[in-house]
Specification:
Order of helices and strands: HEEEEEHEEEEEEHH
Helix content: 10-25%
Number of helices: 4
Strand order of the largest sheet: 1-2-3-4-5-6
Largest sheet: 6 strands, mixed
Bound molecules: zinc ion
Shape: elongated
Structural class: alpha/beta
CATH superfamily of the largest domain: Ribonuclease Z/Hydroxyacylglutathione hydrolase-like
Radius of gyration: 19 Å
């Protein structure tokens, strides 16, 4: 137990977000910081105003589209699995299967590996690279739908229900509310 309590002691939760102390950078900070690793383009993870940002090329492009040409002072696009070192902390991104460009952040420091999941899903989605589990010592996970009460139905079944309704009522308009980035594209791909 005592050993577990010391794990990932080099990562702290600060008011502005998850701070990797030896690296001098944040992951998905909630306020503008000097240096940030961004998991994906949703607004509760990617915010404008940072100094240097590292993320996938897709996430950087989404940030530019959403926040204007210069949502950060400088940027570094990382391919999945590509490793960079920031002040002794090795950083790489692995697919999270959430939206286009979404990544888990893999942090390695002094023999310990921490994975910050960002938002992720494990079901197939044609609009983004599929989630890849990464062995690690500490897994910092998002848990938006983590409670057992959430049991999402099979997406193809839901689309079949929609297509059936459309066939039954071709003269009716079918309105489906989805979030604009990610969910809308996934829905379109499923309908196609
Ligand atoms: Zn998200």
């Amino acid at each position: 137990m005592a050993k577990a309590a010391r794990r990932a002691s080099w990562i702290r939760v600060r008011p502005e977000g998850l701070h990797v102390e030896p690296g001098g950078f944040h992951v998905d900070p909630t306020r503008a910081v000097d240096r940030a690793i961004i998991t994906h383009g949703h607004a509760d993870h990617a915010r404008p105003g940072h100094g240097a940002v590292a993320a996938t090329a897709e996430t950087l492009a989404i940030m530019r589209v959403r926040y204007g040409e210069m949502p950060f002072k400088s940027s570094q696009a990382l391919r999945f699995g590509e490793k960079i070192t920031i002040n002794g902390v090795t950083v790489s991104l692995m697919p999270a299967g959430h939206v286009l460009g979404s990544a888990q952040v893999v942090l390695e420091y002094r023999g310990e590996r921490v994975v910050v999941s960002g938002d992720y899903k494990r079901r197939p989605d044609l609009t983004c690279t599929g989630f890849e589990p990464v062995p690690c010592d500490v897994f910092i996970t998002e848990a938006t739908f983590g409670l057992p009460v959430f049991r999402h139905p099979e997406d193809r079944h839901e689309i079949a229900t929609l297509m059936h309704s459309h066939a039954l009522f071709p003269e009716r308009c079918h309105v489906i509310g989805t979030y604009s980035l990610g969910k809308a594209q996934r829905l379109i791909s499923l309908i196609r």
